[in-house]
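Moderator note: this is an archived Q&A kept for reference. The question asked for a predicted structure of one protein chain; the sequence and the answer are reproduced below.
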Amino acid sequence: MNLSLQPTASSVILTVLVMAAGIWMSYIACKRNRRPLTFKLEILRLAILGFICFLLFQPEWLITSSPQEKPKVSILEDRSGSMETQDVEISPQHVVTRTAYVQELLKGNSTESLKDTHVVEYASFGAPPAPDSPDYAMAGTDLAKPLEDAMQSSDNLRAVIMFTDGSHNASSSVLTQAQRMRTRGIPLFIISAGSPYPLPDLALQDVKAPTYGIIGETVQIPFTIKSTLGKETRATLAMTSRDTGKTVTRTVTIPAQGEVSDAVLWKIEKEGAETLELKLPVQPQERMHNNNASSFSISGRRESIKALVIDTLPRWEYRFIRNALYRDPGVDVHTLLFHPGLEEMGEGPGYLVKFPDKMEDLARYDVIFIGDVGLGSKGLTAEQASLLKGMVKNQACGIVFLPGYQGRQMELLKSELGDLIPVTFLNAKPEGTTQPSPSPLILTPEGRGSLLTMLADTEDENEEVWRNLPGFNWYAPVERPKAGSTVLAVHAADKNAYGRIPLIVTQSCGNGKILFMGTDSAWRWRRGVEDKYHYRFWSQVARWMSYQRNMAAGERIRLIPTPERPRPGDTLTVTAMVSDKLGAPLQNGEVFLDITAPEGSSSRVQMDTMDHTWGSFTASVKINRPGTLAKIRCGSLWFTASVKINRPGTWKLTASSSAEPDKSVTLSVITMSETLEKIGSPVNTALMEEMASITRGRMVKAEEIQRLIKEIRDLPMPPPMETRILLWCSPYTLFTLLLLLTLFWIGRKLNGTI
């Protein structure tokens, strides 16, 4: 313990002046008052002044201390799932997992010599739970947590040695933790385990199967294959029904060190759930075989889609769309013709005499076709346009825009429907463009992969069909697609500043879908083949547009999940559309979400109201584990709830209204089975080097471990810790000063000094 002072010239001068003044005042006081106590009081006065002057020199106590225990070295071993990657080559014939490699390094490099001067502590981290554990899928690696634990375990930590592959998939910042280590002077030494190159592998990824399909119809199941092989690979995938044994195949060419996206077509042939497996054959060069297959379920159902076709005049396009939908056994079609030149609306089987103004009447329809219709007395009103927009956003309805040569749809831009049209128009040409010779449509890359434009069983055949389809003479005054839209087909010849004219465009809006058909000549596709392609196209349009709305549809409730196929960690948002006994959107009641876990336990949360005018309700479900979702209960108002799904298996979500508890509907949502830990990924060398560099440590090769141990053992002892106590700002100093001043004041009173 040492006392140090920091005098300055000003403080010395001030001290001399103060003490001189104090001595003069004491001399005068003693001369005036010769009582015995006076002399003692003046001595106390000089002591107080001397103490104050002493504080002007900024005195401080310097306390040094040395740690009583040995310095500590922490050795951390990564045992996460990625460490099971078998990519460490001991010899050409001997390849082991990263975990086994680390174990061999620990056995072969003794730390006994280090224990003479240090406390050595071993710790492992990231060990995954059992594969059947509910936490297995979301078990990951947090490199920051073991570093934090090591620093908290001792104030005398000298170094950290970490064996890891650098995989870090937690939300915490490992670099922030490395910076804290640097502040404390603790270097991090990392021994990498694993190869910096990915294993030779083909991985089947992003299989996005639909939740349901209509019996007799074909569904599209997209997928992606990622390759780390050194050469191009041609493989034939097989999709097999575990229930019937039916198999379809798809041959794809996968580029070397690249990926390819494609789709398999599957025809729904039976009612109820069907379990399918998509399998990619294992190649001889592959080192991993557990990522070549994906299983899922698709529910087949018989369904009647309700369609409404609205137009001004019975033009050819209107007639053939109506006829195609009328002959479709899965579609219940109604039509509405305004007939601007006539007093009365069109009538006949399936004809409406007026637009369904009531919300409950309009809410019956799954998809609405709007032809060459404008605004006004012989068209749609602004209120009706607003209702149609609400149908799309809140009721998951689909709207198909079918402009015509009269250009009446341009008037819709002045209404709320204008927001839904996925293209912008050229105002200078409202009538569109008529060309002397017909031109065909050309599919875009998005169109070639869309089920909506699939007119044949294979992609090659489909392109051939589209090339040979009869062309069109007129097209709408389209300028360009809007942001967020998807162009499926363009004009074969005509271009503008934005590229080829987009003529088949889709877009999502709220819960619903939009389709824009920029020509009125699809009816020509019947030439020579009758309804073969025309019927198929419009049937696919009707089902594609109404898919989300009918994902889970009951008598009173419809359920829409977003995303349809959630992954572990996603938040599943479920929208419920609830109607009363009369078919009107439910206005009064409560909504609940009942969740049944795989083992049978259940829980309930309230749903949140979105827009109770439309009888819409939502709930958010946190998907933390793979499994299947299926049960919701809904009520009259919108409620929002967040539910943690933390067990693998089948989850039941069943929806029912408080107004009619017996009217329920069940939704099946399959959670794609993926894990945070990825076996086969290369080591994250960049992260490990940055971590070590921040702490003033380094990456260490396996053969350098013994040298590292010697370096740590020979490190000089850290200097003693210093503690500085500033006396001038200490509370004890203030107390002492106040005590002296109090004694001085009491003494003067007792002495009778004025």
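Archived answer notes: Residues 556-671 form a domain with the Immunoglobulin-like fold (CATH 2.60.40.1930).
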